[in-house]
Amino acid sequence: MKKREKYLNISSSFVKIIFIVMVVFILASIGLTIALYSLYGNYIEEKIKITNTIIFGVNTGILCSMLITLVVVCPIALYASRKMASPLVEMKKVAIAMSEGNFSVRAKGNYSGEAGQLAVTLNQLAGELSKTITSLMIEGDLLRQILNSMSDGLLGFDLEQKVNLKNTTFEKMFEIKSDLQELEEPLYEMMKEISLAAIENQKTEITTCSFKEKSILISGSPIRSEDNSIVGTVLLFRDITEAVRLEQTRKDYVANVSHELRSPLTAVKGLIIPLKEGMVKDDEKKNHFYEIIYNEVERLNRLVNDLFELSRLQSSNAPFDMQVVEVSNILYDQQDKFQILVEEKNMQLIVNKSEAPIYVKGNIDRIGQVLTILIDNALKFAKENSTITLSARKEKGRALVFVHNTGSMIKKEDLPFIFDRFYKVDISHKEEGAGLGLSIAKEVITRMGGNIRVESNGKNETCFSFDLELDVLI
């Protein structure tokens, strides 16, 4: 504790001497006054009467002078005080307005002396503050716009784990309006745990979470001040649902390709070994083995060709050679192409003729390729005595082409995935194909600016359809 300074030390000898001298002087003065009054008392009383008369006159004069002065000087003093206080009052109002955030007010600068200088200085201060506040507001709006335009969600925490910053992307991502209390409690607690971990470990913490079928990557990093001390954390949220789906698709694609390639190779290898080692002596059996090997090689060749075709369609941005095509002619060409195969399977393939020619903008070979895939798909899965119907019509400025069959059905749960690569609705039909045909058909129609879809009643009818842009024959 700091020692308090002593400015007066009464115990010192010098102070004692002064104190004693003062006491002696006072006592001597009192004694001298008493002695003089006892000797000259009567004389003093006579003089006091004369003095009182003089003093009364003087007091009366002074009082009159004061009254006159009060009447004359007070208005002048009042005016002068108002004149002096007016700029101060005005500057006080300006200061109060500035404290409330209004920097547009100004004090009059026509005052003289120090008041005028103070007014000019105050106006300069108001101007500078106005520029600074405006600049900060512009920077704040710009920062807010940048944060809201980010594709990633953003959430900021202070050291007490209170939210001090968020952007609209975060609100949209987690479907909240403004209050974070709308978030599920476990999810909000996990965010705070990531923030605390980033502060404790002083490094970026990364994790993932799920929210309504979304996969979200969370990255939490500490925020440091100029002196390198941590003042809070910022969390970034990135929707990686599509990336996860693509990664899973890639894995499935590799697995499916490996499986589809392994099956015919395994079959061929299993038949070649006994032939190579001379275990098969019967010529008829040898021919049967050779036929199986040939079929498996053809299956392998179709798979490779389909993979190459699908990869080429998906990787190339070159447009098809588009012409004006009459749809009915393509339908009749397909009927002639599949007629023999249809008869062998005891089915019917008919074409419903349209009332008027339907011209579309497309590539005749690619449209035929799509129809071939759809008809071949119907022949694989439709039962005997089924009917496959090809038709086309105009609707809402588009041409709709239909491939309908009455001998097969697709389950409702399979419909959303029917155009996925390697997807098969019936695993018992492995020998019929690799499940790439419908994927190729979808890519072809998409490249021609159309859409392809499928409907099934879940019993014995399935209908594939696609649309193309109408055109006119010049």
What is the terminal-to-terminal distance?
107 Å
Low-confidence stretches: 1-12, 427-431
Count of discrete alpha- or pi-helical segments spanning 4 or more residues: 9
Oligomer: single chain
**Overall spatial form:** elongated
The percent range for helix content is 55-70%
- Rg from Cα: 52 Å
Percentage of residues in DSSP E strands: 15-25%
Largest sheet: 5 strands, antiparallel
Number of strands: 12
Salient structural properties:
474 residues; alpha+beta; five-stranded antiparallel beta sheet; five-stranded mixed beta sheet; 12 strands; disordered N terminus
Could you characterize what this model shows?
It is elongated and about 175 Å long. It is built from nine helices and twelve strands. The chain has a five-stranded antiparallel β-sheet with strand order 2-1-5-4-3, with helices on both faces. Strands 7-9-10-12-11 form a five-stranded mixed β-sheet. Strands 6-8 form a two-stranded antiparallel sheet. The chain is an alpha+beta fold. It starts with 12 loop residues before the first helix and ends in a 5-residue tail after the last strand.
Brief sketch in words of this structure:
By secondary structure, the protein is an alpha+beta fold. It is built from nine helices and twelve strands.
Summarize the topology.
Blueprint: H1 13-99, H2 113-149, E1 153-158, E2 163-166, H3 168-173, H4 185-201, E3 205-211, E4 214-224, E5 230-239, H5 241-276, H6 283-315, E6 323-326, H7 327-344, E7 348-351, E8 359-362, H8 364-381, E9 387-395, E10 398-405, H9 437-447, E11 451-456, E12 462-469
Parallel strand pairs: 7-9
Antiparallel strand pairs: 1-2, 1-5, 3-4, 4-5, 6-8, 9-10, 10-12, 11-12
Helix pairs in contact: 1-2, 5-6, 6-9, 7-8, 8-9
